[in-house]
Structure formats: C-alpha cells, structure tokens
Specification:
Oligomer: heterodimer
Structural class of chain B: alpha/beta
Helix content of chain A: 25-40%
Radius of gyration of chain A: 20 Å
Radius of gyration of chain B: 20 Å
Order of helices and strands of chain A: HHEHHHEHEEEHEHEHH
Distance between the termini of chain A: 50 Å
Largest sheet of chain A: 5 strands, parallel
Strand content of chain A: 5-15%
Largest sheet of chain B: 7 strands, mixed
Shape of chain B: globular
Order of helices and strands of chain B: HEEHEHEHEHEHEEHEEHEHEHH
Helix content of chain B: 25-40%
Number of strands of chain B: 12
Chain lengths: 347, 354
C-alpha cells in the first residue's frame, strides 16, 4: 500500500507523512479510540468463533480514518446536526461518537439488550437516532440513495448540519452511487453532503482491478463539478486533515464533496471470507503507535498495557453479555408499525 | 363532482397546506406538467426529480428520516420493480432499528390496465406490495375514497403505498362519492383547479375550501349489500363488480355483496368475515396476475378460518399469468378480468349449493 496519493482538489491536504501534526491531546485521544475499536473487533471475531454470534463483519484496518470521522461530526439529534449514513465497517466511528463498546457485543450476541436492533440485526449494523446515525443496512450501496434525502432536508431547513454518507469501493459499482452523485449536484439544488468511499481494494474476494476501470473513484465526482480528493486513510493525520477540509467545505459552501480514502482491510471481508488477520496489509494502528513512540507521547509498554486492559475489560463484558436475555419469539410483532411519528418529534 | 385525479390533487393540496406535506416529487410531477395524469398540478411543493426511481425512493426515505413528510411518485408502477430493495428498507427500518427510526412517507403510483398501456404501462403492483412487510397499502375505487385515504396516508407515521387505479383516474364520482367542500358543479371545479392548455407559467389554482376526511386505513366499505355471494375487491374492479352485480340482480335475481377492501394491508378481516358468514360464497377479484396473488391469501384464510361457513369453494378471478398486457384490445381484455367474466364467475358461485 502506497502512503502517498495525489489529490484532485487544488489545495488538498498532501497524503502520507506530509500531513500537519496533530496536537498531542488529540493524537492520544485518537489512539485510544483506535485501540478500543481494534480490540472490540478482535473480541467480536472471537465471540463469533466461539459460537457467541452467528456472523461477523466489521472494519479492522479503517480506524485511522473512521475515528477522525466520528470526532469531526457535529453530533446530535435532528435537522440542525449532521446525519450519518454509514456502513458495517463503522464501529470505530460509533466509538468516537461515544458509543459503549459493550453494546456492540450485545448486538453480536443478539440479545434483547442490544440497543441497535434488539437482536434483529448483524454485528456492526448500528442505528442511533440520538446521534442522527441512520440504520445501517446489509446492502452495500443503498445508503448512497437515501443520504441525499437528509441532505435535502437540511438544505430546505437552512440547517448548519451536513449529511455524511460512507460506503466501500465495491459498492460504487451499484447505480445508487450514481444516484448520489446526480441528486447531490443538481444545478441550483446542490446538497450539503460529504460522499465518502473507503477503498480497501476488495469486494469480498474480488480485487479492485477486477471491478473497476477508473483509476480513482474520486475522479467520478469531477464530472458533476464536485470538489474531490483521494487521501491516505491509513495515516491518521492525512485522514484527519483530509476529512476536516472536506467537512469544512461542505459545511461552509453547502455543496457536495467526494472523498476517497485508501485503507487496509486487515481481517478479510467478514466471517464469510474467514476473518483471518491479513499480514501483508499496512496496519494503521501499528503505524500510529510507532509515530506516538517516536514523538515520545506514549511508550510501547504503556500502549501494550492499554491493549491488555481493554482486552480484559471486553472479555469480562462478553461473559456478562452471554448471560443477558435473548429476545422473546413473540417480540417479532413489536415495531412493525409506528403509532407515532418519532422522527418528526412526536412521542 | 371531482374525478379521482382531481380528488388526489385536492388531497395533496390539503396535505401541503395543513397536514405537513413538505415535498411532492417524482418524474414530471412539478411544473409545467404536474404529472402525466395531472395529479400534482398547481401544488406549491411539487418538483421534478431526475429520471431515477431508486433515487426517488431513496430520497423519500432520507427526507422522511429527517422529519419531513414526502409524497413521492413512481410514474407507473411498472418502473417500481427496480426499487424493490429500497422499498424493503422503507418497510423494515422501524422494525430493524427496534423502534428507533420510523419512515413517514407516501409513495403513489398508478397501477393496472385499462388505458391500453401495453407491456410497460399496465402492470399491477398490489400483490407485489403486499409482499413487502412494514408498508400500509391503500387503493381507492372512487374520488371520495381517494381523497380520504390519501389524507390518512399523509398523517400516518409509516410508509404507505397509495396505489392509483389508472383506469379510474378520470372517471367522475357518482352520488355519495362527494368530497367535503368541493363545488357541486364539475365545470366550476375544473375552472378552479385544472391547469389551462398552453402557457401555464402564470396560472395559479383556486382551491375550494375543503374539509378533512380521514378514511381509516384498514377499514373496508360495503359498496353494495347482498345476500347470495360476496365479492372481495378493490380499485378498478369495484365499479366493474357493481355493474355485474346490478345486472345479475335484474337478470338472475342474484344479490351480490360487494366489499371494497380499500386497504390491502392491514385489511379488514372483520368485514370480510361478516360478509362471508352472511352470503357463504365468496369471489376474490383483482387484476394482478393469478399466481401468488393477494386474493389467494384471502382465499387461504377464508378456507382456514371460515371453512364450515362456506357453501361453495372460494374462487379467485384475477389477471392471466402472462408476462405482459398486450396492446390490442382483445389481448388486454383476455389478460384481465372484465365485467362479463366477473358476472359469469358470480353466477357460477351463486348456483352452488352444498
């Protein structure tokens, strides 16, 4: 994996190690969240392997990008805050928003206490109206069709909030990605939307080259007059500043921006492809820890200790979650129809 | 009295002026056309979308999630088939998020044959719609019901399909099908709310003072009382069944009870049960293709729950299971129920005794 990418916008953040250093507090906060996210995904994979769940899918390898994303969001409920249409590799973003990692274990164990779906949906399929996180759905592309709706609502309301939609490179083959580009860029109705593609260069087991003719996915935005960039999503600082630039642009200009982030996929696509660790991919967490060591912000021993502590905490949490109740069969009839219009503020 | 398309337009006007409708959109829905059937002429929140059905449904879901109240249109239901997984998402979002997010949207689409629309403008969608849980599905058979059901669909916090029977869109209301507040004079109404031909850029509709009429979703209507045979139907086949029933009463002294379901989901089992217990014979009638037809579901439930009430096997009269509706008159008539076929089916049922 190269660590340097050309950017297509005129004053884009350079990729790789050339990006501006983050302040120590922020650098350490991001590390803490990246580590928690990695340990969480490791625990979810272990739970799956031990029979404490039926399917694992997640995003180890995307933490350097997904944690800054969660930190840069204007978090809240309703039209005045940012809407997030994420995908199932977004656990690090949820943790950065403030989610409890134990709730992810509950969803893996499909307990009645799972706050995201009450045992109805896969791991990593989050839903959090309190933070404008739209329900994550297994089809890899549909969020690209839905996101322009929240962005249009924000435009109509004169909101300062923006819409952020994220998917993977393989999903851009679907028409929904074209839908997103078209509906976001109509002349006179440009939408405040950040369209993110995290490119890990695989669609399950099919390599990027087997699916794409275009060199950069971000180039597709140029045809629609969008600001675009491709950044190194494996480098925390490139990701942070690249995201900040894109979010600031959308928030200020109220226009769409297409951001492609090159990332690693460290554990296979899902339990369907084994979920084993892939040794020849760059590990963004290891790279970031090396930088923190070089900058003398953390020692190796301190970081090892943190990892051990988080690992132990989640191990214990998984044992507790195992004892939590499963949903009752008759609960299938709950929430088929709403009695009140919650999203419009009723009830 | 209004036509169904005028009734829909007036309901949308009420929707956007006092029930919170924020966006009425779809292909050619906004000015200058106001919809290929003119259902959205003169509405202040109507706008034209790109020619992209998946985008229309996705946009409606997104707007709904953000607390707005969209009414989207798929120009012909034939073009809704490439949106089925998004329709599934609209239907499952409340359930999959365990009550976190509801999706308050209305999706209108014209359905069925009757305008010589050939293969791609004659599909039915009612059976398909009932296969997507989480949606409420309504289909009016007259202007008053169109108005009242659409108002109910608009205020419902769930996704609602409003299926428009295209063969009835321009049919005039009959006595008893008035919309509260509409002028009684057809010409006066037309002058007020129908856009003129030619340049419409300066035209503004003059809406009558309309009253609320909420026809509850899930409530059927007895369109005609009778004691010998029940017809369970909706949409375009309601007036057809009524005409067949009137003829049978005159010619054969057979009194047919016509139940206009109005809502396909949830459907009015109480009304169905009461009618079957009264007549003991039942015909399910619609024009969607007959294999895995919504009427088959009704037949199954009637057999399971009302078997000992039946004096004849419940029957289904539906569209032929062929890949399309042909353009020629003879082909269209051979593909969907007609008044003569309905009459024959009812006559056959009425003759049967245990």
């Amino acid at each position: 994996m190269s660590t340097s990418f050309e950017t297509s916008s005129s004053s884009a953040t350079p990729g790789g190690s050339g990006a501006k250093e983050l302040a120590p507090d922020l650098a350490l906060k991001i590390h803490d969240l990246m580590l928690k996210a990695r340990v969480l995904e490791d625990r979810l994979i272990t739970m799956y392997r031990q029979g404490d769940g039926y399917f694992w899918i997640g995003g180890p390898g995307e933490e350097a990008f997904n944690v800054p994303l969660g930190l840069l969001v204007d978090k809240g409920q309703g039209i005045q805050h940012d809407y997030l249409h994420l995908h199932y590799r977004s656990s690090a973003t949820l943790l950065a928003l403030g989610a409890d990692p134990v709730d992810s274990l509950r969803q893996m164990k499909n307990t009645a206490t799972d706050p995201y779906s009450r045992g109805r949906n896969f791991a990593g399929h989050y839903s959090a109206r309190k933070w404008n996180v739209a329900p994550i759905s297994s089809p890899i592309e549909v969020q690209y069709s839905i996101a322009p709706g929240t962005a249009l609502a924000q435009r109509a309301a004169g909101s300062k909030g923006i819409t952020i939609v994220q998917g993977g490179d393989a999903g851009t083959a679907e028409g929904d990605f074209a839908t997103c580009l078209v509906w976001s860029s109509r002349k006179g109705t440009e939408l405040p939307i950040l369209i993110i593609v995290t490119n890990n260069k695989y669609g399950i087991s099919t390599p990027y080259e087997g699916q794409h003719g275009e060199v950069r996915i971000s180039d597709r935005g140029k045809a629609f007059g969008m600001q675009t960039a491709t950044i190194d999503g494996n480098d925390v600082e490139s990701a942070y500043w690249g995201l900040k630039k894109a979010i600031d642009y959308v928030r200020t200009e109220r226009k769409p921006y297409l951001l492609e982030a090159m990332v690693s996929r460290l554990n296979g696509h899902s339990s369907a492809s084994g979920a084993n660790f892939v040794k020849d991919e760059l590990d963004c967490l290891a790279s970031w820890e090396k930088k923190l060591e070089e900058r003398k912000l953390k020692t190796r021993a301190e970081m090892d200790e943190m990892r051990a502590k988080y690992t132990q905490e989640l191990l214990e949490a998984s044992k507790r979650v195992r004892e939590e109740p499963q949903p009752a069969g008759e609960s299938i009839w709950d929430h088929v129809f709403a009695a009140k219009n919650h999203v419009a503020g009723e009830g | 009295m209004a036509t169904m398309v005028q009734a829909i337009r007036m309901a949308l006007h009420v929707g956007e002026s006092r029930l919170g409708v924020t966006d009425i959109f779809g292909e050619d829905v906004g000015p200058p056309l106001g919809g290929v059937f003119t259902a959205t002429q003169g509405l202040k929140t109507a706008w034209n979308s790109p020619l992209d059905e998946r985008g229309i449904v996705g946009m409606a879901i997104g707007l709904a999630l953000a607390g707005r109240k969209p009414v989207a249109e798929i120009q012909f239901c034939d073009y809704a088939f490439n949106t089925v997984d998004l329709l599934k998402i609209a239907g499952n979002t409340y359930w999959s998020s365990a009550g976190d997010w509801n999706v308050p949207m209305v999706l209108m689409t014209p359905v069925g044959a009757g305008i010589r629309g050939s293969i791609y403008h004659s599909h039915s969608f009612d059976a398909q719609a009932t296969r997507i849980p989480g949606w409420k599905i309504v289909m009016p058979s007259n202007p008053r019901d169109a108005y009242g059901l659409l108002l109910s669909a608009i205020v419902d916090p769930n996704p609602v399909f409003f299926l428009k029977p295209k063969a009835l869109l321009r049919a005039k209301a009959r006595p008893g099908e008035e919309i509260p507040g509409e002028p009684g004079d057809d010409k006066a109404l037309s002058k007020m709310i129908d856009a003129p031909l030619g340049d419409r850029s300066k035209w503004q509709p003059e809406w009558p003072k309309l009253d609320d009429l909420f026809i509850p979703i899930g409530e059927a209507r007895t369109a005609r009382a009778g004691q010998h045979v029940t017809v369970l139907t909706y949409g375009r086949n309601v007036p057809m069944a009524l005409a067949a029933a009137d003829e049978l009463a005159r010619e054969e002294s057979v009194e047919v009870e016509v139940i206009d379901l109005r809502s396909l989901h949830p459907y009015d089992w109480t009304a169905i049960k009461a009618s079957v217990k009264k007549t003991h014979r039942v015909l399910c009638l619609n024009e969607d293709t007959e294999i895995t037809n919504f009427g088959e579901h009704l037949v199954r439930r009637i057999v399971e729950e009302l078997f000992y009430e039946l004096w004849a096997p419940p029957a289904l009269l539906a569209g032929a299971h062929v890949p399309g509706i042909g353009l020629a008159d003879n082909l269209e008539h051979a593909s969907v129920p007609t008044k003569d076929k309905v009459k024959q089916a009812l006559k056959d049922l009425a003759k049967q005794v245990p």
